[in-house]
Amino acid sequence: MSGVEKSSREDKEHGAAIEVRDLHKSFGALEVLSGIDFSVAYGEVVCVIGPSGSGKSTLLRCVNLLEEPTSGTVWVAGDEVTDPDVDIDRVRRGIGMVFQSFNLFPHLTALENLTLPQRRVLGRDKAEAARIGRDRLARVGLTDKEAVYPAKLSGGQQQRVAIARALAMDPQLMLFDEPTSALDPELVGDVLAVMRSLADEGMTMLVVTHEMSFAREVADRVVFMDGGVIVEEGPPEQVIDSPTHARTRSFLARVLDPAAAGLGGPGEDGTDGARP
Amino acid sequence: MSTPKSAPTPTPKSAPKSKSMSRRQRTRVVRGVQYAVLLVVVLVVALAADWGEIRRAFFDVEVAKAQFPEIITTALVNTVLYTLLGFGFGLALGLLLALMRLSKVPPYRWLAVAYIEFFRGVPALLVFIALGFGVPLAFQVSLNQYVTVMLALGLVGAAYMAETIRAGILAVPKGQTEAARSLGMSQGRAMVSIVIPQALRIVLPPLTNELILLTKDSSLVYLLGLSLSQYELAKFGRDALNQNRSLTPILIAGLCYLVITLPLGHLVRRLEASTARAR
Questions:
Q1: What is the band of B167 on the pLDDT scale with cuts at 50, 70, 90?
Q2: What confidence tens digit (pLDDT) does each residue in B53-84 have?
Q3: Helix axis angle, B233-244 relative to B248-278, nearest 10°?
Q4: Distance between CA atoms of A45 and A196, rounded to whole angstroms?
Q5: Do residues B147 and B85 lie in contact, with contact meaning Cβ atoms separated by under 8 Å?
Q6: For range B146-164, the mean pLDDT
Q7: Cα separation of B232 and B247, whole Å?
Q8: What's the order of all strands across the beta sheet hosting A79-80?
């Protein structure tokens, strides 16, 4: 038994960063995920796109068990997170998560947002946590904001602090749940730039997003979801530029056409319609 | 509203003009009547009252002077001390009860609800009697006075504070817990490091109100047999009242309470304003 477990674990360690098998999730009578199979390799950047209500965020939240799957299996970095006996707190340490609504801790300064989890979860001492915290803040270009409380930061700055907070835990992979959807359009660029540089450094990233240009330029693979299933997936040039499924085509037409027609870019009606 | 220049508004099927008063006229008459009533009452009181007697009873300068400095150094200090003891114990117990009330284990919830309902429903006086006289008689133990006061004030205060703190915890957005958990914090760690600090900030104004209520309730200590050095404001005032046959000590004791409660009340309003701004 233990031998089997060991070999399967080693297999996973040399395999995917995220492995999802036949994942179902229902809220009451509503089935949000209807059998998802997919995986993310180490170093890979995968963008999940799709209309609102298609289950993208739920899928992401099942990966670090913020939502408990109804059935199916999820492995992250060799640990089966759906195993009832797994130490989920330990697994989550390795998974950085960035939320649409930032979720910075408002009673702590930017630097304290980074140091408190390091000290309480990883047991780092004060000096080391502060050193790493400052390094990660510098990483997102916010060195001068370390003593500032979140309420005094712009949305874009808050989201960059949130990314830095996740990075301070030295995660093996990062989950992004519509990280730019709550931002004013002029603040989106800074956040995307940070994410792009993370991708360039080889960070494993699973990104739920409506930013098609980001997906096209940064993603190694794009997954299109609709109605709780993966409709199609592949390299961005294939899924975004020449989709094979009608549902993908109609979604992309709604999202991309206003911009292509020069009617004021994303946010006209297609993108807004796709946002939750 | 209506200026003389404004166009005459067509009054539909108007009542006879002579009888109707404009809104402004009516306001003036109503206000005039109110001032007149006030003036009459003040005049009657001023003429009928025996001012010499009232002054002797309430504002006897000699009696007043005799109360100092003990009314400050002993009584006021003890009132503050008793209140803080009760508040500290009540806050700790209230936090525990709030967490029990939110527990996923049903018996904890039942216990917390039963406690809260019981202690919110009985008079604080009864709790003081039970702890001050009942417990020593029934168990043949004598509690330290300070412990008695701390328990009596705290047990009642905790019931109110528990409900307040519970509301505060529920007011912290769910995303805060999710962020903490996603960083690898356990449920308990997220509660202690992230949720409770924010919850306490949210409930700071109502908790300060609770402190004001406890300050006043601390007067119930006068029931217990206290030594002179343990007197608080109410007991001190009552003692001096008996000695001097003058209400002056009571008035001064009352003013001493205001010295505590008015600034706290002001603090509550400022905290409320700053919380409102922060949102």
A1: very high
A2: 888 888 888 887 877 888 888 888 989 999 99
A3: 160
A4: 10
A5: no
A6: 93
A7: 17
A8: A30-41, A16-27, A71-76, A79-80
ipTM field: 0.86
Count CA atoms closer than 13 A to B157's CA, side-chain side.
32
Cα A133 to Cα A129: distance, rounded to the nearest angstrom: 6
A29 close to A56: Cβ distance less than 8 angstroms: no
Whole-number pLDDT of residue B18: 55
- Chain A residues touching B176 at Cβ < 8 A: 103, 105
Contact between chains at A92 and B183 (C-beta distance less than 8 A): yes
- Rounded Cα–Cα distance for residues B127 and B134 (Å): 9
Query: Is residue A43 left, alpha or beta, with left meaning phi > 0 and alpha meaning psi from -120 to 50?
Result: left
Which residue carries 């000290």 as its tokens? A119
Q: Name which of B108, B197, B210 is nearest B158 in CA terms.
A: B210
Residues of A in contact with B182 (CB under 8 A): 64, 66, 92, 95, 97
Residues of A in contact with B175 (CB under 8 A): 99, 101, 103
Q: Using an 8 Å CB-CB cutoff, list chain A residues near B198.
A: 105-107
Q: Which residue of B has its CA nearest to A149?
A: B278
CA separation, residue B201 to residues A111, A199, B172, B192, B213 (Å): 20, 39, 10, 13, 19
Q: Are A23 and A69 in contact (CB under 8 A)?
A: yes
The partner residue sitting opposite A89, judged by closest CB among B173, B186, B201, is B186
A106 contact residues in B (CB cutoff 8 A): 198
Q: Which of A89, A103, A151 sits opposite B278 (nearest CB)?
A: A151
Q: Which residues contact B50 (CB under 8 A, 6 or more apart)?
A: none
What CA–CA distance (Å, rounded) separates B253 from B248? Answer: 9
How many A-B residue pairs are in contact by the CB < 8 A criterion?
A: 57
> CB under 8 Å to B158, separation ≥6 — which residues?
B89, B90, B91, B93, B94, B97, B115, B119
Q: Compute the distance between CA of residue B128 and CA of residue B221 in angstroms, rounded to an integer.
A: 7
* pLDDT exceeds cutoff 60 at A271: no
Q: Is B184 in Cβ contact with A169 (below 8 Å)?
A: yes
Residue A237 Cα distances to A27, A59, A217, B73, angstroms: 34, 23, 9, 82
pLDDT in tens, A177-205: 999 999 999 999 999 999 999 999 999 99
pTM: 0.80
Q: Quick: pLDDT tens for B177-224.
A: 999 999 999 999 999 999 999 999 999 999 999 999 999 999 888 888
